[in-house]
Specification:
Elements lengths: L7 H23 L14 H6 L1 H14 L7 E4 L2 E2 L5 E2 L5 E2 L1 E2 L5 E6 L6 E8 L2 E8 L1 E4 L2 E7 L5 E12 L2 E11 L1
Parallel strand pairs: 5-12
Antiparallel strand pairs: 1-2, 1-6, 3-4, 6-10, 7-8, 7-11, 9-10, 11-12
């Protein structure tokens, strides 16, 4: 007597297992990007959602008009940063800076006049947010001296306004040790 085995019970169990794994991965991935704390566009996420197309048009116009190099030069107490870069989860590479040191970050640009809003923040909380000062001289966009007093990930959110219809949004990450 030959017994015929069916695969469908294993298929159902495999499907349930795959769904549970997908849910766990979604939660793991979303922990790095809490939506309600995201200030990337310097506005509430409801307003960003409603005006997202206009924001993208302004970003494209900014990138067409202005060259802004996101590879920055980091100065620690007036000297170039000598620390090796840190590889974070998902192979993201960020520069490492020292705690409690005067930092200055310099970006190359061809802009002659930019209005800037800068926010120093932690990606998981708004508790340590600081507004930063900047200057633009001779094609160098410089973020004034500031200190990082807690170890871990830090982000500098930048809203750069060239004109009413040309606005650029950038994020620069640092890792403090």
């Amino acid at each position: 007597m030959q017994t015929k085995k069916s695969f469908w019970p294993y298929g159902i169990l495999l499907s349930i297992f795959a769904i549970v794994c997908a849910c766990i991965y979604t939660i793991y991935y979303s922990l790095d990007y809490p939506v309600h704390l995201d200030n990337f566009y310097f506005d509430k996420y409801q307003n960003v959602e409603n005006g997202y197309n206009e924001i993208q048009i302004k970003q494209a116009k900014f990138e067409q008009d202005i060259k802004f190099d996101t590879n920055a030069t980091i100065l620690i107490n007036g000297l170039a940063n000598q620390n090796p870069d840190q590889t974070l989860r998902r192979k993201k590479v960020v520069p490492v800076v020292n705690l409690n040191q005067d930092l200055e970050i310099i970006f190359d640009t061809n802009a002659s006049n930019l209005e800037a809003s800068l926010l120093l923040t932690r990606p998981d909380t708004n508790e340590f947010n600081q507004n930063l000062q900047s200057s633009l001289e001779n094609g160098k966009f410089s973020i004034s001296k500031f200190n990082l007093d807690k170890a871990g990930r830090w982000q500098i959110m930048m809203k750069l306004i060239n004109s009413d219809d040309s606005v650029g949004f950038y994020k620069y990450e640092l890792y403090a040790k």
